[in-house]
């Protein structure tokens, strides 16, 4: 890519930003028309609510903004790559995305998108695609080399389903082939693929592994997303909640960059909102079994006791293990007895437990909805926690970029 093309790219970023939403809507419609099979690969819920669309557009624009020094984006690209790897995205599909994206720029922007501008964007896209293809190639190779691991989809039988709260069920997934399964880092997720009858499509979704590694099975814990009119109910979570023991699903091998560092000795501060407690539970159990057995503070917030999954297990661990302290925030406290278990009425407010969490060298892990993550992150920064010690994961396309 030459200097003139880089200048053209920089000059046209504002135009693409302006037409970002129209452009990405147009691009997806164009691509799905030509390649309807890709609808089985993309999250149609995110397509409908607009979240994934902005993720791809933002990533391409972020790349364009850093065209002089794209290496600053490498950690972001690794995050995207790990998601792509878990969805079995293949190098040849970049050509499909590239063709439809560039054609869409031409068709949406119109005459202002001259041939030389389109050529410059084509060069930029394929430069980004090459970086991503190479990153993902390494990821596929490393993944394949791990004992018990696999690339793509593998069939698992749901052998046990447990109701953990009024809206969360755990699914115990055993490999149908009875062979070994690969170990994972606490905090990682798997992608699951199920057939959704109302779409007549296969649909993938990500779910964090919610227990410490067990060589027999993977456990995920899924919240049934009930739609509040006019929004429809969640497709895959409801499909999963209607499954029975013995049913078979396809999953990809564990992935993700939000996880505990295996041998670190730093204290842990886990901060979760709602179903965002699933990776934290895996971290808690893994830490409990490890020789480090690090000091752990877990702050959790949810609407009320009835939606608080795993609270009894966590209380049991707390009773037996001196290294765990918990703070639980309920929007509504219904039971007076709960006060003895450090239940605090209201939304999570880290100021209320700051003396407990401001531990030297602590690592802070946050998981929950976007606004929840932003609020906790901001409080931690205000409390002088270094951003390099804060890690977060959003249960959707990773749209927030705080550190
Ligand atoms: C890394 C990662 C880990 C995760 N871990 C977990 C976990 O451990 N447990 C868990 O329960 N979830 C987890 N999730 C979230 C999970 O992947 C799904 O996003 C979630 O289950 C919802 O999927 P769904 O198919 O039920 O909903 P979808 O059908 O995808 O809908 C999602 C939302 O979009 C709204 N929507 C759909 N269509 C429209 C429309 N036309 N207009 C407006 N709004 C619309 C729905 O009302 C719903 O609120 C995780 C996500 C990620 C990325
Ligand atoms: C340079 C090209 C690409 C860029 C910049 C890009 C960017 C992104 C981003 C930012 C995300 C969200 C990541 C996250 O959730 O954290 C994503 C997810 C995804 N990408 Fe890509 N991507 C590219 C190419 C592709 C290709 C070639 C395919 C396959 C056809 C693909 C399929 C997907 C799918 C299926 C998801 C998950 C969607 C969802 O869950 O809603 N991407 N990509």
The gist of it:
By secondary structure, this protein is an alpha/beta fold. It folds into three domains: 3-145, Globin-like; 154-251, Elongation Factor Tu (Ef-tu), domain 3 (Beta Barrel), CATH 2.40.30; 268-394, 3-Layer(aba) Sandwich (Rossmann fold), CATH 3.40.50.80.
List the helices and strands and how they pair.
Layout: H1 3-18, H2 20-34, H3 44-49, H4 51-65, H5 74-86, H6 92-109, H7 115-145, E1 154-163, E2 168-175, E3 189-196, E4 201-208, E5 218-223, H8 235-241, E6 248-251, E7 268-273, H9 278-289, E8 296-302, H10 311-320, E9 324-330, E10 343-345, H11 354-357, E11 363-368, H12 370-382, E12 390-394
Parallel strand pairs: 7-8, 7-11, 8-9, 9-10, 11-12
Antiparallel strand pairs: 1-2, 1-6, 2-5, 3-4, 3-6
The chain binds flavin-adenine dinucleotide and protoporphyrin IX containing FE.
Identify the strand order in the major beta sheet: 4-3-6-1-2-5
Name the bound molecules. Answer: flavin-adenine dinucleotide, protoporphyrin IX containing FE
In total, how many beta strands? Answer: 12
| Shape, principal axes of CA atoms | globular
Mean pLDDT: 91
* Broad CATH class of the largest domain: Mainly Alpha
N-end to C-end Cα span: 29 Å
CATH superfamily of the largest domain: Globins
Residues in helices, as a percent range = 25-40%
Oligomer: single chain
The H-and-E topology, N to C, reads as: HHHHHHHEEEEEHEEHEHEEHEHE
Reported for the largest beta sheet, the result is:
6 strands, antiparallel
Organism: Flavobacterium reichenbachii
Pfam family, one: NAD_binding_1
Family: Belongs to the globin family. Two-domain flavohemoproteins subfamily. In the C-terminal section; belongs to the flavoprotein pyridine nucleotide cytochrome reductase family.
Protein name: Flavohemoprotein
């Amino acid at each position: 890519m030459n200097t003139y093309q880089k200048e053209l790219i920089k000059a046209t970023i504002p135009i693409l930003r302006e037409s970002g939403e129209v452009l990405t809507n147009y691009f997806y419609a164009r691509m799905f028309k030509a390649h309807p099979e890709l609808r089985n690969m993309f999250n149609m819920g995110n397509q409908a609510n607009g979240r994934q669309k902005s993720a791809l557009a933002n990533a391409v624009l972020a790349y364009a903004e850093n065209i002089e020094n794209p290496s600053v984006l490498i950690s972001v690209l690794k995050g995207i790559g790990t998601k792509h790897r878990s969805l079995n995205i293949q190098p040849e599909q970049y050509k499909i995305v590239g063709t439809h994206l560039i054609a869409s720029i031409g068709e949406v922007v119109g005459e202002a998108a001259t041939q030389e501008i389109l050529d410059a964007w084509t060069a930029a896209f394929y430069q980004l695609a090459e970086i991503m293809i190479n990153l993902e190639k390494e990821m596929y190779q490393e993944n394949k080399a791990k004992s018990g691991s696999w690339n793509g989809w593998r069939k698992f039988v749901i052998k046990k389903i447990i109701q953990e709260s009024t809206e969360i069920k755990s699914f115990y997934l055993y490999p149908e082939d009875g062979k070994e399964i690969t170990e994972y880092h606490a905090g990682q997720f798997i992608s699951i693929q199920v057939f959704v009858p109302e779409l007549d499509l296969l649909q993938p979704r990500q779910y964090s592994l919610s227990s410490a590694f067990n060589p027999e099975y993977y456990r995920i814990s899924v919240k049934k997303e009930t739609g509040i009119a006019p929004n429809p109910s969640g497709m895959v979570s409801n499909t999963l909640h209607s499954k029975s023991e013995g049913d078979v699903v396809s999953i990809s091998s564990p992935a993700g960059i939000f996880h505990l560092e295996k041998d670190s000795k730093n204290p842990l501060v886990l901060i979760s909102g709602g179903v965002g407690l699933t990776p934290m539970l895996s971290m808690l159990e893994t830490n409990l079994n490890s020789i480090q057995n690090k000091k752990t503070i877990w702050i959790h917030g949810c609407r009320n006791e009835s939606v608080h999954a795993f609270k009894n297990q966590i209380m049991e661990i707390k009773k037996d293990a001196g290294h765990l302290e918990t703070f639980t925030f309920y929007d509504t406290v219904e039971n007076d007895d709960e006060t003895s278990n450090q239940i605090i009425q209201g939304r999570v407010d880290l100021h209320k437990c700051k003396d407990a969490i401001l531990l030297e060298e602590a690592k802070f892990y946050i998981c929950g909805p976007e606004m929840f993550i932003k609020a906790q992150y901001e409080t931690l920064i205000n409390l002088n926690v270094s951003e390099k010690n804060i890690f977060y994961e959003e249960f959707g396309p990773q749209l927030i970029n705080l550190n």
